[in-house]
What we know:
By secondary structure, the chain is an alpha+beta fold. The chain is 37% helix and 17% strand. A hairpin with a 3-residue loop joins strand 2 (34-39) and strand 3 (43-49).
Amino acid sequence: MCGIAGLACFPGVRPDPALLQAMSDALVHRGPNGAGALDAEHAALRHRRLSILDLEGGAQPLSDGAIALVANGEIYNDPALRKSLPDVRFQTGSDCESPLYLWPKFRAQYTHHLRGMYAIALLEQRGPEYELVLSRDPFGIKPLYYASYSGGIAFASEPRALLAAGIVPRQARPQARDQLLQAQFTTGAETIFPGIKRLLPGETLRIAGGHIVERLHQSALPALRPNVMTEEKALQELNRALLDSVSAHERADVPFGLFLSGGIDSAAILAAMARLDCGRPLAWTARFDAGDVDESAEAKRLAQAVGAQHRVLTIDEKMVWQDLPKIVAAIDDPAADYAIIPTWFLARAAREQATVILSGEGGDELFAGYGRYRRAMRPWWRGGRAPYRRGMFDGLGVLRRAGAWRDGLSMGRNASKLRAAQTLDIAEWLPNDLLLKLDRCLMAHSLEGRTPLLDPVVAEVAWNLPDDLKIRNGQGKYLLRRWLQDALPEARPFAPKQGFTVPIGAWIAAQGEPLGTLVAAQPCIAEIADPARVKALFRHAASRKQRHAAWALLFYALWHRLHIENISDQGDVFETLSASASSSRRNSCITI
Length: 592
């Protein structure tokens, strides 16, 4: 797991060392174990390394003559790829070396042979000319961003690197801001920063002479098979796929563990680890000092059932107000999901013992766990509706305007209602909220996150399940629950689950008067919302609708202070919101 950056320049333009250094410095948290560089006449690569495999010999950039590579991620089928390339003399034990030799053979289709999570930059030099190829894994587990500038195109693992180099101005795009507030994430290739684009999940860009010359796309979802699986056959296929995936995701030369909740997804990963006889895996669970939901007892029971080493982390209100600016500072591409709070604290705790964490992201999307999927399947006269029909601020009268926030959130029509809803989430919600949250919160602590449920062999099974093996008797994830019932009956997979809820509403309401006053006074909030209604919203944040909206405004106010106004994240919430402009980070931008 690493951070990558670089420049692809126009003819006659040489890479700017100051820009490259600024981008590399901004990504040091992603790779504290080493820094690598390659400078060509009109292009350059930078790499920050977090050592996971081949700790001694896997430094990047990797090169083979005229071709060089920097990568962020893990290629899980690297052992098989090495066997398929018998004439290649591999230089390292790094799993990221195999794409270097796939490129000459398959060119822009080389990613079709990769199983893993990755953001890759390949540079091929042909005398004074060059081609730079940027690729992102099909689920979008690993991030990659790019922007045009006066010298060509710059790319980096996080927007903060492009901002720190002064490649784009610190501004917020209104349409993306409206979408963030209403849906808690932003969609598509355009980010909230004007000029910074995301490489889409499964996208490969070919760049020559500082210009994009070709875009290709690889789908995360397999083609549907014509046969209909029986439940018994589906269970056999799912068992094979889960064990295969978890086994591949455990491959590391450093300690690894698991984020364990009381839910189905992490319990399934734990059960697969137990079946694979992984010894005594490390597991971490978060609990809160407030609220009605506490999964730690359930998680402890599961850990004891398989002999896992279990750690419980209690998060209280004081910790949140003290560290929330640092948490929001990590989420440069904003996602106003308050699950960032436990994820960030769990990552900080886990980093003391591990470098790799397995997590259950993707289970709800592939196996149909969300209640919105069940609603999407109902006819309208029974309360059926498509996902994302209502925003977090609808009906509250707080925002001055709603904006066209639903753009990018339309369900497709060439599938069943269930598959259409799943496809929308896999394309947008998953990479732009859940996976972004996992990547930034873990990488803030130099920790690698792996998602075994988001694997091609698992997707092949899950996507081909008939609807009644996904949703049955009003419960989603039927087949995964059925597998877990056999693999780890202590998980009680068919018992009602409460869901993992952060008591952010109670915490905000307890500080409603000072918080509401500070948030309402922010120019970025006053521009879009009525200050009196904002203050009232924070006073009533303990109720469900108001809770989500108050959190969204608090998140956005902090995010704007940290990423647009460039205020330091060293104070607590109250200090950050009341800080003067003189508290801005100094010398963080280079003028170009």
